[in-house]
Structure formats: structure tokens, C-alpha cells
Amino acid sequence: MRSYLRAHPTELWLTLVLAAMCIGLSLTSEQFLSAGNLTSLLNNNAVNIIWAVGLLVVLIAGGIDISFAVAASVVQYIAIAVFDSIGGGNWAIGFIIAGALGILLGCVNAALIHGFRIITIVVTIATFNAFFGLLMFFSKGRFIYDLPDWWGSRVVLWEHQSADGRWAELNLPVLAMVICIVLTWILIRRTTLGRQLYAFGDNPEAALRAGIDARLMQFSAFGWMGMMAGIGGLMQVNITQEIVPNALIGRELEVLAAVVLGGARLGGGRGTLLGCLLGVLLVAVTQNGLNLLGVSAYAFKMIIGAIILIAISTSSLSWGSLIQNRRGVSA
Amino acid sequence: MSNQSPAMPSWMHSENTILLIVLAAVFIGFGLFAPKFLSEGNFASIAFQLPVLGLLTLAMLAPILSGGLNLAIVFTANLSGLTLAWVLIQFGGPEAGPWAFVIGSVAAIIVGALAGAVMGLTIAYAGAHPILVSLAMMIFLQGLGEFLTRGSDISGFPAFLQPLGHGFFLGIPIPLLIFLGVALIWHVVLAHTRHGFAVYMIGSNIRASEYSGVHTKRTLTLIYTLSGVLCAVAGILMLTRFNSVRVGHGEALLLITVLACFLGGVDPFGGFGKVFPVVIALVILQILSSGLNLMGANQHLSTAVWGLFLIAVMVVRHLSGRLTLFSRWRT
Fold first, then answer.
1. Crossing angle of the two packed helices A35-60 and A172-190, in degrees rounded to 10
2. Out of A86, A139, B50, B90, which residue is the most buried by the measure of CB atoms under 10 Å away?
3. Candidates B128, B210, B268; nearest CB to A119
């Protein structure tokens, strides 16, 4: 573990910051370490983490995706139409449909990227606008509250009443989150495909010469991201119990900030699941802590932005010289 | 994936031609099929809508040319507008004199420059990635603005500001004149000054420019500071256009500015791109939007068309690039 952390200074740094924050919060607020607070922290951030692990795979493969949150909204609207047409459905069908629709949208990105050699940020900014515009046009901005029973009702996996009578519970999104994390871990750490994604992201030219299939890389990275976007969208509806076309727009940048904060390199080839989770948790715990300390909700974003700014300007000082970092960018 | 950069000198030439042909095609198409497209009212509305998006796009241009991105432009503009509004209100709101406007504008520009300078310093000296830094700054500024205004509109400005946002000078809308003036200055700065040359060099190869004596850190800081100044000008114009300031105003323009730069042939990896094609791209986008609007489509459909249009242009560029390669190989 020690050698792992020494090889990954960003993860070490984030762990220290997060630990310091947790200790500080547990001393100043007795609620912070309560089961109720910790479980709600998990429930509320499950969707962000599902998206984050998907985005991590794209970043490792040297890409970037701006369109996934909007893609999740598109999946929600198509999925409800599919569920209505097949007369309801259930969770198994729901996961399959949402995952498949997500993969499909991810493949649209991958096809444009690979087929026409357009770089990922251009494609995903274009599809972001195309998906969102078409979604708003066809949905006419309508909200949907009339969901199939299984989709709209909370699934409690674990509950516990603490001594003071407060309930703590873990819901289905948390299970989905854990499965997504484990699957992504297997993909990037235990398969040849995962190794190839790192190699391709680090140096596409060298990877191609070593016989790696660029098409396979793009389609698997963006397909994976799409699947996570779809599942995240499915879970988001389960949490909020409504479908709103513009509810998720803007979340992509928050998730991107958290994942990159966790050490995934824009430019590819570097990034760990631990760092990714720590990045999301750092933002989540900050927000939770501010809430518990009674800070005005209007100040949250300002403080989170300041913390990310401070974190990057202090942690990246040790990452080596400017040149090395920026070389990774343009690669 | 830097192996996709097309051959530049001939490419930049044909870039203007392609864009002008597209512009003519779009113009003639809507002229024939959209009712009232060729009316004075329509041109006036295009001329009034273009400048805000245009100024923000120019603010995005230099960071992209240097191989980065500034995602904080809209909220920098909002915060600058807020500063001007605050100064005007200190001087009595609607009763404030011209001097209050001058002082307020200077303060707004200082705020914009400051926000940009902090980003530039972090990118240059901490070596952090521009996307992450500007994303954090965006979250911070949005939070700061929401904290200060509590999410409400600020209005009640003196009447003499009205002509700045809505008036004509020699038959040309004043906002358009401001935009054209700034675009001209920006063209001169990028094409004919030491700083501009350094921007292109950094975008092409930061290490080579460092070794050839360019003060890369100072240049990077200046790039983002000037970008912040342009945002402030956009923020001041937004105040006079809408006669109010709200944090989040123009949020949807953020990714459109990136889209406009790419459409204008700016290399996403930096190093190549000019002001003039970007201005043509902006005009095309605005014509598309207003033409579709006249044909009865709403803004969301325009957003979708913008996205699809960018994809189409990139596909054509890819295919024509292959064609040129092919013909070169033949001869």
C-alpha cells in the first residue's frame, strides 16, 4: 500500500486532505459520522460516481466526453417510451435497455471520432449540442412524472435505526454504483483490453504500431462511458422520481472536475479508480460538511471552487515541471 | 492524437474560402426559403445578437490557440457585469452619471483581468491543466456570484446606457461596432505583435518555445488575463443589452463559443487559427439560428443544428484532407 501511494502522489495527497476534512468534521459536527449522514452521502453521490468511473475510462484512453450527462437525459426519455410500449418492464429490462441505449449513444461518439478522425472534444461538444437540442425539441421541454411503478419506487437494500431514532438506509443506486466500480476495476486492471486502453491513451502512435486496434479502443471507451451514462440516468430517475430534460445538463463539468482532480490525466494514459473516487468524494464531503456546519447554501459552490483551485495549485507543484505536464496535454 | 493536424499553410487559405462558400450557401438558402429573411429587421436582430457571443468567442480563442481552454468565460463576464452594476447602484442606480459608468467599467475590467490572471498564474506556475483550472474557476465564480446576488436579477440602470446596447451609429448597431473594433484589435494583437507570435508558438510546441527564449509562463499568464479582459467587455455589453445582470446569464453560450472556434478552423490542439475565419463562423451560426427561427423552429432546434453542422464541417474537412493527400500522391 505504501509503495502504491508513493507511486501515486495525487491519490496520497487527496487521501490526506480527505482524512483531514473527515477528522475535522467529526470533531465539529457530531452528525457527520452518524450512519444516517454517511449513507445519505453515498445515496446522493451514487450517480456522480457511476458517471465518474465511466469518464475515467474515456480519459485513460486519451479522450474527453462532454456529452454524457445530456446522453443520460436522452436515455431517460427513450427508455420511458420503450417501457410504455412494452407495457411496464422491470428492473432487469430497465438496466438492459438503459445500458444498451447508453452504449448506442456512446458509439455515435466513437463512430464520429474513429470514422472521421475528429478529436474527442470537438465531437462530444457537437453531440452535446445535438443531443440537447433534439431532446428539448422532441420532448418540448415536458417533465414526466408518470413512471412505471418499479422505476419510481425506492428500493431499500439495507436499513438501520440508530439509538436516537434516525433511520439510515442504502438504496439501489448504491448497489449499482458498487457494481459499476467493480466492473470498471476489472476492465482497466484485469483485462488485456484495459491495458491496451492505457497504452493507447498514453501514446496512440506507439500503440497502433504495437498492433492495438484503434477502432476497438474508441468504441470500448465510449461504449463504456455510454453504458455508465445510461445506468446513471436510470438511477437518477429512481432517486428524483421524475424525468426533466434539462436536469442533468451542467453535471458533466462537475464530474469532469472531480475526476481530473483525482489524477486522471487529460491527454490519456494515466488515472486510477481510487483517485477518481477520492476526487468525487472530496467534493461530496466538502458539500456535506458545509451543510452540517450550517453554512449558507449560496456559498457552497464558491467554497468548492476555491478548494479545487487550491488543491490543484498546491498538488500539481509536485507533479514535475510545467513542460512535462503540458506535453501530456498536447499528446 | 496529434497526427491529425492537417498541413497548415494551404489549409488556412482554403479555410476562408470554404467558410465563405458555406456562408453564401446558407445566406442564399434562407433568402429563398425563409420568409422575411432578407428584411432590415432580421439583419438588425442578427447584428444585435452576434456581439455578445462574438466577444465571448474571442475570449475563448487565444486560450485555445495556446493549447488550452477557458471554461470560465461566461461567469467571468457575469462577475464583471455584476461589478459594474454594483458601482452604478452605489452612484444612485438610475441617477448615476456617465462617470459612474466609466469607473464601473474600469472596475469590471479589473475584476475580469484578475479572474483571468489567477487562472493564468495557476496554469503557468503550478503546471495544472487549463481545463481543470478554468473549470474550478468557473465553479468558484458561479458560486461567488450566486452568493453575492442570492440568484436574483440586478437591474435599475441609468437611461444613457440604453443606446450602447440598442442604438445605432451611422446606421450600424453600436454593439456590432464594439465587436468589430475588438475583433480588429484582437486580430492585430494575435497576428502582428510579439505576444501573438508567442501564443501561436506555445500552442504548437511549448517546450520548443521555452528553449527558443519565449517567456512561456509570462505569456500564459497574459493570455488568460487578456481573455478575462475580453470577458469583462462582454459582461459590460450584456448589462447594456439586457438592462439587467443575473449570474448564469448566457451560460448556454459557453460551449457554443468553443464550437464557433472549431468551426472557424482553429486547431483544437492549439497553434493554428485566425480571427477572421472565426468571425465568419460566428456569422454563419447566427444566420442559421435566425433563419431557422424565421422558418418557425425554436432555439433548441438551432442548438441541435449547430452541433450537427459542426460535425458536418469536420467530416467534410476530413474527407477533403484525404482527397488532397490522394491527389498529391498521384502527381
1. 30
2. B50
3. B268
Distance CA B5, CA B272 (A): 9
Please give the domain boundaries of chain A with CATH numbers for all domains: 2-330 (1.10.3470)
User: What residues of B are in contact with residue A204 (Cβ under 8 Å)?
Assistant: 1, 3
Kindly state whether residue B92 falls inside one of the protein's structural domains.
Answer: yes
| Facing residue for A302 by CB, picked from B140, B259, B268 | B140
Under a CB-based contact definition with an 8 Å cutoff, are residues A301 and B150 in contact?
no
A149-153 long-range Cβ contacts below 8 angstroms, 24+ apart:
A149/A88, A150/A88, A150/A89, A150/A90, A150/A91, A150/A94, A151/A83, A151/A89, A151/A94, A151/A234, A151/A237, A151/A238, A152/A237, A152/A238, A152/A241
- State residue B330's pLDDT score: 45
Lowest mean pLDDT, pick from B56-65, B93-102, B223-232? B93-102
Give the other-Cβ count within 10 Å of B99's Cβ: 9
| B90 within domain boundaries | yes
Angle between helices B8-33 and B299-330 (to 10 degrees): 140
Instruction: Give me the residues of chain A with pLDDT under 70, please.
Output: 1-2, 4-6, 315-331
Q: Which amino acid is at B292?
A: L
Q: What is the mean pLDDT of chain A?
A: 88
Q: Would you state the cell numbers that stand for residue A261, as one nine-digit string?
A: 482532480
Cβ–Cβ < 8 Å for A127, A118: no
Task: Please indicate if any CB of chain B lies within 8 Å of the CB of A127.
Answer: yes
What amino acid is encoded at B243 in this protein? N
Give contacts of B300 with chain A, Cβ < 8 Å.
Answer: 132-134, 136-137, 141
How many CB atoms lie under 10 A from the CB of residue A102? 29
Q: How many interchain CB pairs under 8 A, A with B?
A: 199
| DSSP 8-state symbol, A322 | H
Q: Any idea what DSSP says for residue B146? A: H
What's this model's pTM, rounded to 2 decimal places? 0.86
B216 touches chain A (CB under 8 A): yes
Q: CB B143 to CB A130 under 8 A?
A: no
For residue B122, being part of any structural domain is answered with yes
Interface test with chain B among A316, A326, A329, by most B beta carbons within 10 Å: A326
Sequence-distant (≥ 6) Cβ neighbours of residue A184 within 8 angstroms: A53, A54, A56, A57, A224, A228, A273
**Which residue among B128, B137, B216 sits closest to A316, beta carbon to beta carbon?**
B128
Cell numbers that stand for B121 in this block:
498564474
B143 in a domain, yes or no?
Answer: yes
In chain B, the number of structural domains is 1
Nearest residue to B261 (alpha-carbon basis) of B2, B6, B19, B1? B19
- Where b means 16+ CB within 10 Å and e means fewer, B123-149 reads bbebbbbbbbbbbbbbbbbbbbbbbbb
B49-66 residues labelled b (16+ CB within 10 A) or e (exposed): bbbbbbbbbbbbbbbbbb
Q: How confident is the model at residue B215 (pLDDT cuts 50, 70, 90)?
A: confident
